[in-house]
Design a protein that fits this description.
globular; four-stranded antiparallel β-sheet; alpha+beta
Length: 262
């Protein structure tokens, strides 16, 4: 693992602006989700909302990625590309938004239902969103990174869902992917201690069935190997001396109450 960047006060102030913009764009896109809408329409709306924020997509053109946002439906875990696919009753959709604002990046993601979904898939969304906040609760200067990562897996394990291992969270700043990698399971060996000023994109990716994944022929879209539904939630988080500041803060969408679970 290379050097983990520590942001100064000026950089943190700009990351707050980028994070808030990314959150507003994501929340705007979640309002667009409905039966009959195409993923391409959501991607186009993303372009409009990012332009309104005076920013640009952190994803478009990144290593050749063709979309404004990553839009993944049902068994698609991450890196789905908006297009002609029409959302239908019972789908789940993950939207991942990265925005560059004044040279700094905010990155966040959420998964929501399209109409009515099965209770087990509701539990998948709930558990995955909860695991993100369980990880964030561990974030504090002096805590080892492994304790943050391990919190995701520990929360998901009792549900019996599959925690994706091939794709991980990451540091973020002027570049979309900085050190450190932030897996959603406890890595082997000793992990670095967090320091105030580090900024992490923590992003649990959890499948309802197997943890195993498969890449589609487009070279981007990753799906669950058994085609079970997947959920993805992400926040950009600042490490402070006494905890975590969520730079992409937004209301939760997958509580038991909101999902209608007992």
């Amino acid at each position: 693992m290379g050097q983990i960047p520590i942001k100064n006060a000026a950089a943190i102030a700009k990351m707050r602006v980028a994070g808030a913009a990314a959150s507003r764009v994501l929340q705007g896109l979640l309002k667009e989700v409905a039966v009959g809408v195409t993923t391409g329409q959501i991607d186009q709306k993303c372009a409009e909302l990012i332009a309104k924020e005076g920013g640009k997509s952190a994803f478009l053109g990144y290593r050749g990625f063709p979309g404004q946002a990553c839009i993944s439906v049902n068994e698609e875990i991450v890196h789905g590309i908006g297009g002609p696919r029409v959302l239908k009753e019972g789908d789940v959709i993950s939207i991942d938004v990265g925005i560059v604002k004044d040279g700094w990046i905010g990155d966040n993601a959420s998964t929501v239902a399209v109409g009515v979904i099965p209770d087990e898939t509701k539990r998948l969304l709930m558990a995955t969103e909860e695991s993100l906040y369980a990880a964030i609760e561990q974030v504090k200067a002096g805590v080892r990174l492994g304790d943050v990562c391990g919190a995701v897996e520990a929360h998901i394990k009792p549900f019996g869902f599959g925690v994706v291992r091939e794709f991980v969270g990451h540091g973020v700043g002027k570049r979309l992917h900085e050190e450190p990698q932030v897996p959603n399971y406890r890595p082997q060996g000793r992990t670095p201690k967090l320091k105030a000023g580090m900024i992490l994109a923590i992003e649990p990716m959890v499948n309802q069935g197997t943890a195993k994944v498969k890449m589609l022929d487009d070279g981007w879209t990753v799906i669950s190997k058994d085609s079970s539904p997947s959920a993805h939630f992400e926040h950009t988080v600042l490490v402070t001396d006494d905890g975590a500041e969520i730079l992409t803060d937004r209301p939760r969408v997958a509580t038991a109450e909101l999902l209608g679970l007992e």
